[in-house]
């Protein structure tokens, strides 16, 4: 193979070939995340790669599906490719690696004809000045993947061992035991349904939209073929998209009409909407103006209102403490891998340590913003103990004026399995039948309900 070049001439492909632009965008986004741009979310990498390409909505959805499938099975795909490449995986050439990975993902995981997956990948190689000479290699490897698909799939038996980065598998085994960690890795392969929070008349909407009304309150849709914004009820603000687990922290906070409640890391606003629906006077704070614009659009659509403050929560004045505070802290997001499989490949243990430090400071700030007798809910969409139970244990040791209110199963429709040994909420991707198909599973959320003593 030719040596790696640091300056990359952009590929110029024939955009009149159906499906080629979608593959190009998927490949560029995957290459970005496999290369230097760790920390970027796949959604942002796709937006960046699609700039100037002008993808039609159907092609944008295809690009997202290819890129998502690439990360969902990246461990399995890497192993299948490595076995079929004489010189091993081209780790130092992210654009070549991404071309092979996205091609293999189409063949192994998506309803794409093999010849289309192979042919369009080869075309992309030929359109890329750095990869032109490797087009025969791309062709040969992807054809072999297609020919040997059954054998490859038969090897995909243990997703914890074969499809999970070692550092995550090790942590999950330590935190949850081998069996649960294995079930979680299996649930990550399934992807996730679309859950809706429907404040009024959920039965009527379940009738109109189909799906299953979960006993946790959300409506779960497993077969969504159109864009969510085209579903009945979206435009009129009858519901919003929110994983069933993500709706639980606010339920535990139990907002009351007229209470002053601060939502400290609020955007894009799923939990703000829940607080506002309950009639609370919500102050929604986020340091990202762009994300708060989304929150404002969401609240407008839902006919809800909140005081929206663009600020670092750490800088908020403490002179008027709130009746209740919700801190949905920034975190590694390892609880969302079913929906965002890139998280499993782009986050590092160093990110975790950095975020745990920020969570600690935000939690202490949230405590100072809670009035005596008031409630504080801390939550993260993380599976890592440092961002969950360990954070609360350390907080309670530092803040003797706070106590934990243990969560009871009655508050969770009897789901005692969602409560950990300390009385905090601990949902897992393997809960609610996760790992047995798209209809099961929950995002991995941690939440603790705390009270400031009078
Ligand atoms: C997990 S997301 C919040 C999701 C939101 N609660 C919801 O339910 O839709 C975390 C948010 O924290 C914000 N954030 C991170 N650090 C912050 C800080 N120091 N102050 C305020 N917001 C912060 C991020 O911009 C991001 O929007």
Count of β-strands:
12
Query: Describe the biggest sheet?
Result: 8 strands, mixed
In helices, the fraction of residues equals: 40-55%
Q: Can you tell me the residue ranges where pLDDT is under 50 for at least 5 consecutive residues? A: 1-5
Radius of gyration: 23 Å
- N-to-C series of helices and strands: HHHHHHHHHHHEHEEEHEHEHEEHHEHEEE
Describe this structure in words.
This protein has helices at 20-34, 42-50, 57-72, 74-83, 94-109, 114-126, 135-147, 149-154, 159-162, 166-176, 178-190, 202-209, 248-253, 270-277, 289-302, 343-346, 349-368, 389-398; strands at 194-197, 212-213, 219-221, 240-241, 260-263, 281-286, 307-310, 322-328, 370-380, 402-404, 425-426, 446-452. The model is unreliable at 1-5 (pLDDT under 50). The longest helix has 20 residues, at 349-368. It is 43% helix and 12% strand. It contains 18 helices and twelve strands. The protein is globular, with a radius of gyration of 23 Å. Helix 1 packs across helix 5 and helix 4 (74-83) crosses helix 5. Strands 5, 6, 7, 8, 9, 10, 11 and 12 form an eight-stranded mixed β-sheet that branches. Strand 6, helix 15 (289-302) and strand 7 (307-310) form a beta-alpha-beta unit. The chain is α/β, with parallel strands linked by helices and 454 residues long. S-adenosylmethionine binds at residues 265-271, 285-288, 291, 312-314, 328, 330.
């Amino acid at each position: 193979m030719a040596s790696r070049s640091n300056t990359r001439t952009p590929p110029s492909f024939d955009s009149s070939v159906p499906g080629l632009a979608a593959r190009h965008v998927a490949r560029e986004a995957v290459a970005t995340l496999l290369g230097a741009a760790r920390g970027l979310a796949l959604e942002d990498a796709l937006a960046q790669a699609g700039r100037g390409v002008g993808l039609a909505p159907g092609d944008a959805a295809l690009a997202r599906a290819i890129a998502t499938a690439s990360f969902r099975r990246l461990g399995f795909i890497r192993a299948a490719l490595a076995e079929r490449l004489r010189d091993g995986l081209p780790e130092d050439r992210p654009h070549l690696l991404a071309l092979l990975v996205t091609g293999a993902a189409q063949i192994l995981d998506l309803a794409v004809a093999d010849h289309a997956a192979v042919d369009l990948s080869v075309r992309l190689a030929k359109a890329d000045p750095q990869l032109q000479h490797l087009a025969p290699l791309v062709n040969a490897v992807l054809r072999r993947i297609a020919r040997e698909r059954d054998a490859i799939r038969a090897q995909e038996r243990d997703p914890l061992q074969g499809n999970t980065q070692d550092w995550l598998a090790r942590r999950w085994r330590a935190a949850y035991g081998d069996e649960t960690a294995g079930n979680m890795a299996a649930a990550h392969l399934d992807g996730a349904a679309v859950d809706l929070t429907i404040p009024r008349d959920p039965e009527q909407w379940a009738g109109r939209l189909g799906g299953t009304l979960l006993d946790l309150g959300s409506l779960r849709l497993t077969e969504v073929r159109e864009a969510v914004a085209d579903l009945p009820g979206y435009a009129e603000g009858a519901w919003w998209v929110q994983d069933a687990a993500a709706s639980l922290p606010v339920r535990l906070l139990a907002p009351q009409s007229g209470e002053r409640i601060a939502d400290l890391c609020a955007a894009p606003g799923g939990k703000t909407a829940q607080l506002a629906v309950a009639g609370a006077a919500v102050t929604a704070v986020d340091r990202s103006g762009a994300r708060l614009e989304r929150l404002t659009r969401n609240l407008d659509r839902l006919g809800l209102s909140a005081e929206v403050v663009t600020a670092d929560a750490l800088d908020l004045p403490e002179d008027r403490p709130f009746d209740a505070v919700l801190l949905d802290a920034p975190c590694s997001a390892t609880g969302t891998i079913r929906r965002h499989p890139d998280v499993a490949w782009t986050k590092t243990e160093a990110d975790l340590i950095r975020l745990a430090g920020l969570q600690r400071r935000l939690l202490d700030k949230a405590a100072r913003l809670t009035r005596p007798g008031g409630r504080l809910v801390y939550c993260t969409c993380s599976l890592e103990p440092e961002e969950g139970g360990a954070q609360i244990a350390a907080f309670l040791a530092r803040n003797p004026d706070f106590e934990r209110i243990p969560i009871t199963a009655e508050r969770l429709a009897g789901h005692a399995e969602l409560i950990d040994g300390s009385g905090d909420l601990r949902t897992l991707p393997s809960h609610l039948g996760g790992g047995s198909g798209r209809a099961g599973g929950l995002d991995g959320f941690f939440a603790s309900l705390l009270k400031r003593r009078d």
